[in-house]
Amino acid sequence: MTTTRQAPRKRRRPPRSDWQFPVLTDLGLAPNRQKIIVIVATVIGVVAGACGLVLAIASLGSFSPDREAGGTVGGDALLPATYHAWPSPKLFEPVLDRAKDAKPLTEKEVFAQKTLTGDKKLSLKLAARRIDADCSAAVWGEELRAQVADAGCSQAARGFYTSSDGRYLGQYTLLNVRDGQAAGQLVESLKLGYRGGWVQRLSAGTAAFPPGGYSEGAGYALGHYVGLVWLAKTDGSEPTARDDFVALALTLRGAEKAVYRRVVTITGPRS
């Protein structure tokens, strides 16, 4: 009887550990030690990445989300939905430097006209007025207050007007700053900065800029003066084709006549 010899079974190799890495294996490190090294390295990497992320976020600075256009910011602070800036015309070169126009503004001078008249039978009646020697009292917003101070603002005159038909509101603010360069920079900076700071509103009885309502703003450099125009409908609604805000703004700018008179005082009447 012949016996058949079974071929010896090949010895299976143990499955390769998930913690074997060629580089570490070549260095003679066992899988369990490789596992420890990988875990430690991973923890260090996560901690380093988190620190880097914190530093990256810190380097981006702080962010304040845009406030709702025309909405209430807090307290009595409101802002317009739009703003446009205009540089100083050549006409105001005689008053580019406050040193040559040093006499302070007076209420009688700025608010001499109690009614401002314009085209299309539009008229605006002065309802409230105020002049502050501390310009920071006439504006809100930390950055704007700092810019007004840097511009050497010595006076802020505000006049609040209502239309004869009761449909519109307007406020004109005149800032007396150091020179034409400071005025131009302030007007220009508000192209982006007006959403974080604007003028404080005046009111007269029940007539006031409505919180949350639509309004428009504009800034004009006038030599060493800054004129800020602010317009709205009484009910706070957006203007329609029937509402000519351009004509309304031109009428409100009648409050600038005080600056024109100062130019004439320096240059003399022109032929």
What's the helix and strand layout?
Elements: H1 22-26, H2 31-59, E1 72-74, E2 77-78, E3 82-86, H3 107-110, E4 115-117, E5 123-132, E6 139-140, H4 142-150, E7 155-163, E8 168-176, H5 180-193, E9 198-199, E10 215-222, E11 225-233, H6 245-252, H7 257-267
Parallel strand pairs: 3-10
Antiparallel strand pairs: 1-2, 4-5, 5-7, 6-9, 7-8, 8-11, 10-11
Helix pairs in contact: 4-5
The counted number of beta strands is 11
Mean pLDDT: 82
Low-confidence stretches: 46-70
H and E string: HHEEEHEEEHEEHEEEHH
What does this entry look like structurally?
The longest helix has 29 residues, at 31-59. This protein has seven helices and eleven strands. A hairpin with a 4-residue loop joins strand 7 and strand 8 (168-176). With 271 residues, it is an alpha+beta fold. The protein has helices at 22-26, 31-59, 107-110, 142-150, 180-193, 245-252, 257-267; strands at residues 72-74, 77-78, 82-86, 115-117, 123-132, 139-140, 155-163, 168-176, 198-199, 215-222, 225-233. It has two domains: 22-59; 72-267, no CATH class. Residues 46-70 have low confidence and may be disordered. The strands form three sheets. A seven-stranded mixed sheet has the order 3-10-11-8-7-5-4. The protein is 30% helix and 23% strand. It is globular.
Compact summary:
With 271 residues, the protein is α+β, with helices and mostly antiparallel strands.
Question: Could you list some keywords that capture this structure?
Answer:
271 residues, alpha+beta, seven-stranded mixed beta sheet, two-stranded antiparallel sheet, 30% helix, globular
